[in-house]
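User: quick one
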Amino acid sequence: MIMTKMGIKPEKLAPKDAESINHRLLVQGGFIFQEMAGVYTFLPLGLKVLSKIENIIRKHMDKIGSEILMTSLCPTENWKRTGRYDSVDILFKAIAANKMSEEKSSAEYVLSPTHEEMVTPIAQKYNTSYKDLPVAFYQIQTKFRNEPRAKSGLLRGREFRMKDLYSFHTSEESLKEFYEEAKKVYLDIFNELGLGEDTLVTLASGGDFTKDYSHEFQTRCATGEDTIYLNNETGVAYNKEVMPEGADKDANYESFNACEVGNIFPLGTKFSKAFDYTFTDKDGEQKLIWMGSYGIGPSRVMGVIVEKFFDERGIIWPENIAPFRVHLVDLKQSEKAKQIYDNLTNNGVEVLWDDREATPGEKFADADLIGCPIRLVVSERSIQAGGVEVKRRKEKESEVIAIENLLDFINR
Amino acid sequence: MIMTKMGIKPEKLAPKDAESINHRLLVQGGFIFQEMAGVYTFLPLGLKVLSKIENIIRKHMDKIGSEILMTSLCPTENWKRTGRYDSVDILFKAIAANKMSEEKSSAEYVLSPTHEEMVTPIAQKYNTSYKDLPVAFYQIQTKFRNEPRAKSGLLRGREFRMKDLYSFHTSEESLKEFYEEAKKVYLDIFNELGLGEDTLVTLASGGDFTKDYSHEFQTRCATGEDTIYLNNETGVAYNKEVMPEGADKDANYESFNACEVGNIFPLGTKFSKAFDYTFTDKDGEQKLIWMGSYGIGPSRVMGVIVEKFFDERGIIWPENIAPFRVHLVDLKQSEKAKQIYDNLTNNGVEVLWDDREATPGEKFADADLIGCPIRLVVSERSIQAGGVEVKRRKEKESEVIAIENLLDFINR
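Assistant: Done. Structure below.
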């Protein structure tokens, strides 16, 4: 991508109202635009990162589920049926905005914050025999929550991206089996996102759904909102809300701050009961379906990654989700930079080409702020040395390498 | 994709309430699930088609604009500022659904049916010098419209997919130049979607925005809602609403039904005035920005394609957007079908494998209903003949070809 054609520039100053690292760096770097608290537009750089995160999640989800795309508008009736219309305290509804609109239609719809109320009738329409089950559907889609104040950048949104998976089973045993498989797939995802080392499965409250625990995926992070107690002897980690009595005084327990990046729930039969979703078993008997739900918020994950991987100069993106692999700083505004840009992009390397009229200082500062893994500099000096200056964002030292070795350097 | 793992099956009967061809075939084929009138979930097959359409649009849009992802929630203030809060008659707002939610936050937001009110402040933040312009942003995103009755399947939705592009210019001349370029790119898109031959640029009303015409892209279609008058001498086509006087009695004019698949508007300075969006010209003067907007509805396009390409047995997808290239009908439930499936998918061919326990009649009917370009049949007969039976959806005759020639046949 050519920077002068992108339509967006990094800013010199951080936004004044930023209370979190991800909010500050992502807005200043030109990744996101704040519409309101907790509501962000993804700008070209931000959408690149978000799409990479979503595509990694999608690749792994395809192994265990069938992708669909549900709507945000949901019949109010569905939410009344499960009793959640009145019990969920962050629920938005969509209604006519003005008189003219009301004259056309005064209908009301729930603006879905989660999709159990929509996916259950879909699964029910097509899967009513034990032969059809288990089955799992997932989607990557936008969710709405009427949060009063959302001040943590992408960590807590009123409109945000979610991957939600729902599974349907003939028995609790089948649910448990799938649940364990989903747990493994989730860990694969966080590994590929660069969060593997620091992400733990932790026990959390089952909420309304189950007397058992649910499970969260928590990433160690100094600014994290959750407190985790990890028993270093057993390896079991607990969210503070469910930690064993005395854990805070027990030397076997280590406690740390963490950000939730995913959660999985054994829903049991709560929703199948509400929708009378039964299946015909081998013996012809009608039995209730067992369900699980499994969430990862791609936009939230993007925020968590920034909270973890940054320094005083800007973001340091993990390789797999950087907006571009290479940030090409063009100080000379010469034909050389264009040649390198064309050569790399023709070889499948994603390059952000800073072709702006700006000082070297500004360009270097913006490269560090944006945080692509490799910075190339085309300057008078590098051209005279017959090469291009390369530096990894993670490292301090740069070197000049011959142009013919550039692809090897980048792909190594 | 393996059909028994998809979680969705084609239905034996068409939905009773279907008033349009696309609604009937897409629901019966298991492409979409109707939540309410004008609100459809995309099921695995439908999402495949939708994603292909969106990716074709994206590829062409990347040539003239920068992709972003705006939100649906928009500050009400923005819509009041342009005067459209009260004048747009299909506007939804999002508000707290219940008492608990209202206690948390009683704020109201517009649920965007179009994004001029959001994109203008974004462009304004980053592009205020003549050096920054022209610039164009686009997104592929979900839109909401409070339509009272939506009865045409994917043709008229209350929640639907939209590609919207917005361009920003220093002069009317620059806008006109970009507008003509966008027109060409749109025709390229409709060509690649298989609609090229039958899609015309037609003159339509400029609406609120301009005293000039706007332009629509209209696809000839027997069930289309619009009437087009084409002057066969000049080649100029008019939407009935702006046709020249007497055109309906003029032998030079041909009239036909058509479906709108895209529209482009010279917005002029309406929105830049509302947001005080000016730029600094070469001479240091502040001048108003000129804007254009350009829309294609991917979900609507999907509906139009079905309205055009079908027969009494089902859908006939154009090559580029078929959910799968190959529909593999497995009558034998043998190892042979699995070998073919693995071989083709390993060679990058998208295959839908009907591995269900069902009669040949059911499987053939469903293959025709779903409408992939090539049908393969693995049967006792084909195995004995040492090959596989192939048939194109468009043609009547099938033939048996040797397995080793299969890839050539498919890719030819």
